[in-house]
Amino acid sequence: MCAMLAEPAAPAAAPIAPLVSVEPAVRVEGLNHFYGEGAARNQVLFDNHLEVPPGELVVMTGPSGAGKTTLLTLIGGLRSVQAGRLEVLGRDLSRLKPRDLVEVRREIGFVFQMHNLFDALTAYENVKMAMQLSHERPDTMRQRGVEILSRLGLGHRIDYKPRSLSGGERQRVAIARALVNCPHLVLADEPTAALDRDSTRIVVELLKSMTIEHDSAVIMVTHDYRIIESADRLVHMVDGRIVSDVVLHDALRICEFLRAVDLFRALTPTQLTDVAEKMKKRKYEAGETIIREGESGEEFFLISDGEVDVVRADHEVARLGRGDFFGEVALISGEPRNATVLATQPLDTFVLGKTDFQSAIESSAPFRDQLYRVYFSRH
Ligand SMILES: Nc1ncnc2c1ncn2[C@@H]1O[C@H](COP(=O)(O)OP(=O)(O)O)[C@@H](O)[C@H]1O
Ligand SMILES: [Mg+2]
């Protein structure tokens, strides 16, 4: 069952798995597309390249007629690839038979403007259509359907038929249907066009939580600036071409955070951006061990949210919180970790690798001095 709607997971005992390189959810290479035949043949996509890793929320913008919907329907296996290469969820769509394309489509959540709800079915029954293949028990399906509809603000509309719903409500039913199975890939074409401000926020939060909790990749066409703020990547299309593809690195957000931390005030803006770009966001569950006394030190940590206990020889020596950092001692001294650090609650960190940490120290004398002051007090 999809865990999106379940209770938060119990604290994990084991540390998180090492970050491994993962296959992109979508890989587009040299993709062209034509409509029409003969003299009427018209090229609408030109040599497009795009890679979307799992867990990324991609916002696609561009004027009407730019080719956004065409690209999205190709990625969704709703059209055949004519020229170029297209891999979706590990499969090469250009080589698939129509029967196999159906399989791929089943793994994708589609939110298109023509939402095609069944008029004879209630909101819940429409959502249930998407769960038919899961072979779950009726009461489990009902529970999941009701939960996702409620999460989208439709708890009071579960058994209504589309004709008794507003346009925005129908759109949210379609979104519930697309997301109820927690697909690895969500393709959404202006999904919030018919929605008011509050519903838009709810939908975007749901999509964002899918990327975080389920590592779903989401590609969404929109012009809504409130959504762009939540995006991990911004792709802009003009005249059939992707003309810009910007990863909205966490760097910008990390930079904002670093600016407020004493230690990092010693860096110039350029140095700060440099460090922020090299930092990775990482989450830990409550109870997880982040570093262990006696192990060699490979990373430096800055807490962006939550709290940790620093424990040495089984005694708590410090409790650190938002804006505090740890892990620098072993990186500076080259000696093993002199303490164990445990998350006492869900923890968000920014992590800097050893080499990047050392080049930050070398690049800025004030930063180094500031850091050494802390180092000597902790060593
Ligand atoms: N089914 C179709 N047959 C012929 N031309 C089409 C078809 N769908 C779209 N087009 C044309 O392809 C171009 C790209 O359209 P589209 O992908 O819908 O762009 P966008 O979603 O960015 O508005 C436009 O010039 C449009 O007129
Ligand atoms: Mg379109």
What does it look like?
The strands form 4 sheets. The chain has a 6-stranded mixed beta sheet with strand order 6-7-8-3-9-10. Strands 2-1-4-5 form a 4-stranded antiparallel beta sheet, covered by helices on one side. Strands 11-18-13-16 form a 4-stranded antiparallel beta sheet. Helix content is 33%, strand content 26%. The protein contains 12 helices and 18 strands. The longest helix has 17 residues, at 197-213. The protein has 2 domains: 21-248, P-loop containing nucleotide triphosphate hydrolases (Rossmann fold, 3-Layer(aba) Sandwich), CATH 3.40.50; 251-378, Jelly Rolls, CATH 2.60.120. Mean pLDDT is 88; it is low at 6-21. By secondary structure, the protein is α+β, with helices and mostly antiparallel strands. Adenosine-5'-diphosphate is lined by residues 35-36, 44, 62, 64-70.
Give the secondary structure arrangement, pairings included.
Layout (H helix, E strand, L loop, with lengths): L25 E10 L6 E11 L4 E5 L6 H8 L7 E6 L2 E2 L5 H9 L1 E4 L11 H9 L6 H14 L15 H13 L5 E5 L7 H17 L3 E5 L3 H4 L4 E6 L2 E7 L2 H10 L9 H10 L1 E5 L4 E3 L7 E7 L2 E5 L2 E6 L4 E2 L1 H6 L6 E4 L3 E7 H10 L1 H14 L1
Helix pairs in contact: 3-4, 3-5, 8-9, 9-11, 11-12
